Amino acid sequence: MENDFSVLRASVFFGVLITMLSLERLWPRRARSLPAWPRLGTNLGLIFIDTLVVRLALPLGVIGVAAIATANGWGLFALLPLPPWLEFIASLLLLDLGIYAQHFAVHRFGWLWRIHRVHHADPDFDTTTGIRFHPLEILLSTLYKCALEICIGPTASAVLTFEVILNATALFNHANLALPRRLDVLLRLFLVTPDVHRVHHSCIPSETHSNFGFNLTLWDRLFGTWNEQPAQGHSNMEIGLPEYRNRSPARLAWCLKLPFSD
Fold it and tell me: Are 122 and 241 in contact (CB under 8 A)?
């Protein structure tokens, strides 16, 4: 099943990536602050390294762990039997809440923030920002998701569905895409749109540490971390981290060294 999952996830990932890259060129929300290269190569290079590290370090993957957990009767759903359809929906919601909590934590704990800065140091905001993570963060994130699965006990099919959705929405909500205003207003009632998540990549700390959701806006609204719009507007806001507003974050070697510098 893990091999089938890898093929499905890769197919959806590349399909959404190519679609978002194309739409960004047709309807960009903001002008770029840096040339596409080498920044684009750096972001794509990170996802290649991330995938290799996780495959080598955790060959079972999240699907394998989910299968083991359910086979052994681990987790919440083993203690609280639900109809399959309700358990499936509850699994997606609990996993999404778990990712929100993880994202909140990497902004609150200093050593995790050092690693997560690689993502926020990107001086531009486009769909490739959604794959710009340090390998150490991806490894820790995968371990966290495996622990979450053991606690919840979702089926492998629920985890597979969630992972595909998470990858697709990360590419969508980081896109430099100008959605029609009425569509954005409607979607953001439930879903994280590019305008919603762009606020999270502002240079202003109070905005950086808000809008943690990746899929649903529900959690930010519920836990008081919701920020409707950037103070300087989407066209004028500065993206990235104030201390790294230069060309260094566009280099792959710089990104890999960042958590261990300063």
Answer: no
